[in-house]
Specification:
By secondary structure, the chain is α+β, with helices and mostly antiparallel strands. The protein has a single domain, classed as Alpha-Beta Plaits (2-Layer Sandwich). 38% of the residues lie in helices and 38% in strands. The chain contains 2 helices and 4 strands. Strand 2 and strand 3 form a beta hairpin. The radius of gyration is 13 Å and the shape is elongated.
Length: 93
């Protein structure tokens, strides 16, 4: 069994409150889960208006597949108009 994890730092422009940020992030998480069937949650910067940290996990029987799948999720996040990917880390265990 192979576990792929990723941490993604996001910048959320155009929000004026934590409520706005949570609305944007909630929609992003739902779209990501629906498209990729990946475990994803907001895991950091919970009290910062314009920053968010997402944690992702992918279980596979092939390390290459896990890495490619997480890279596809990150590319999807990079194409979203309401957030900007500031940084990311991928690890396959």
């Amino acid at each position: 069994m192979v576990i792929g994890t990723a941490t993604v730092e996001l910048y959320v422009p155009g929000v004026n409150s934590l409520k706005d940020k949570r609305r944007v992030i909630k929609g992003l998480l739902e779209r990501t889960r629906a498209r990729f069937n990946v475990s994803v949650a907001e895991v950091g910067n919970l009290d910062r208006w314009r920053q968010a940290t997402l944690g992702l996990a992918w279980v596979s029987n092939d390390s290459g597949h896990a890495h490619r799948s997480l890279q596809a999720v990150i590319k999807f996040l990079e194409r979203q108009p309401d957030v900007q990917v500031a940084d990311f880390w991928v690890q396959v265990i």
